[in-house]
Recover the amino acids of this structure.
């Protein structure tokens, strides 16, 4: 099982990024998936999730209306489109299965929102 997150970068407030998560080693299309983020010194929190088909999504209040989660089951890839980024979005972003038990975590991708 492996998750490889990518797409993080340094971006100015108000900017946009698109994160990708390439998944392997399990039947990706059978599971609800989610994005999580962890800021320095803080716990890892769920940001956005979607069902196995992508038909139902859920967002943390802090990102609702700004972030969009999607998936490509043909290519075992999860996406997170992030718009109108704020400094408080700065964190390492991870993907994983929505339900516990979680699969082994990837390294994540760093998103830094700063002038």
């Amino acid at each position: 099982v492996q998750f490889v997150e990518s797409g993080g970068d340094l971006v100015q407030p108000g900017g946009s990024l698109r994160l990708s998560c390439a998944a392997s080693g399990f039947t990706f299309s059978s599971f609800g998936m989610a994005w999580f983020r962890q800021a320095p010194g803080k716990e890892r929190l769920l940001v956005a999730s979607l069902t196995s088909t992508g038909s139902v999504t859920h967002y943390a209040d802090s990102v609702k209306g700004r972030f969009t989660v999607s998936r490509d089951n043909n290519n075992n890839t999860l996406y997170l489109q992030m718009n109108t980024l704020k400094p408080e979005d700065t964190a390492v972003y991870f993907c994983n299965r929505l339900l516990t038990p979680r699969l082994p975590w990837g390294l994540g991708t760093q998103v830094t929102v700063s002038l």
Summary: The longest strand covers residues 17-24. The beta strands are 2-6, 10-11, 17-24, 33-38, 45-50, 57-59, 67-72, 77-82, 91-97, 109-113.
